[in-house]
Design brief:
Blueprint lengths: L17 E3 L12 H9 L3 E8 L5 E3 L6 H4 L10 H4 L14 H8 L5 E5 L6 H12 L6 E5 L2 H10 L4 E6 L5 H11 L3 E5 L6 H7 L4 E6 L2 H10 L2 E4 L8
Parallel strand pairs: 1-2, 1-9, 2-4, 4-5, 5-6, 6-7, 7-8, 8-9
Antiparallel strand pairs: 2-3
Length: 240
């Protein structure tokens, strides 16, 4: 899968790739400690989403509110961590974890991709909290976001943290160029729909390019040729 780069990728998860929001499925909710344990069990890297709680902690959760995952009318950024942590994910025995809990579980055993979900211009406070949580930890970790302000903050304040930019296939050229210049990424995560675009091929000569979200064997077959690592779920999981 590698093109002409000679330098190794410190986040390379190998053939298992990255489990999107952990290895979730029936009875195992996305972004739960159980999903992350399952990913570790098969030796896959972990991709997860992180937001800033109302009390300023980094919590592992994708949506801006708890309606879909917890059937609760709460906004993540307005809800204290203590209240978020007791919200049950679907009907499982799993609850919303903090980033610190996830890091304590992983302990550098597999590579970790942390996607920061910014809200109302809170990139600075969110990055600050994530960098604080990462400080005592070891192991391969990359921090990425759709928001190029995250990459800019990391460049200026935590250049030791490997930073990435998440890019949709339909992002206009000028916005993509501006985001790349601002974030100064060391890796990219592009959606599957962008893999055929020439700029992705060029980018792979400079940095690793991961792709999301691989959900079918056909998407996996394509992505294994056109990307360096796959972020997968469901039927897109690696072949045993």
């Amino acid at each position: 899968m590698r093109l002409s780069r000679s330098d190794p990728d410190p986040l390379d998860p190998g053939p298992p790739g990255f489990a999107h929001r952990g290895m979730h499925g029936p009875g195992v909710p996305e972004n739960s400690l159980a999903a992350f344990e399952e990913a570790i069990r098969i030796g896959a890297g972990i991709e997860c989403d992180v937001r800033l709680s109302g009390s300023g902690s980094a919590v592992v959760f994708h949506d801006s509110n708890l309606v879909r995952m917890c059937d609760a009318a709460l906004e993540v950024e307005r809800t204290p961590t203590a209240l978020l942590s007791c919200q049950r994910l679907h009907d499982s025995g799993e609850f919303i974890p903090t980033l610190f809990e996830l890091l304590d579980l992983v302990r550098g055993e597999v590579p970790l991709l942390i996607e920061l979900k910014t809200h109302d211009g809170n990139a600075g406070p969110l990055c600050t909290e994530v960098a604080y949580d990462l400080a005592p930890m070891s192991g391969p970790v990359g921090v990425m976001s759709f928001d190029p302000q995250v990459g800019l903050w990391l460049r200026r304040n935590a250049p030791h943290i490997r930073r990435g930019l998440v890019v949709r296939h339909d992002l206009p050229f000028l916005k993509r160029r501006s985001a790349l210049l601002m974030a100064g990424p060391q890796f990219l995560a592009v959606d599957c729909g962008a893999l055929h675009q020439s700029w992705v091929t060029r980018a792979r000569k400079r940095m690793p390019v991961y792709t999301w979200t691989v959900r079918t064997p056909a998407e996996r077959a394509q992505a294994e040729v056109q990307a360096d690592s796959l972020i997968w779920e469901g039927d897109g999981r690696p072949r045993s």
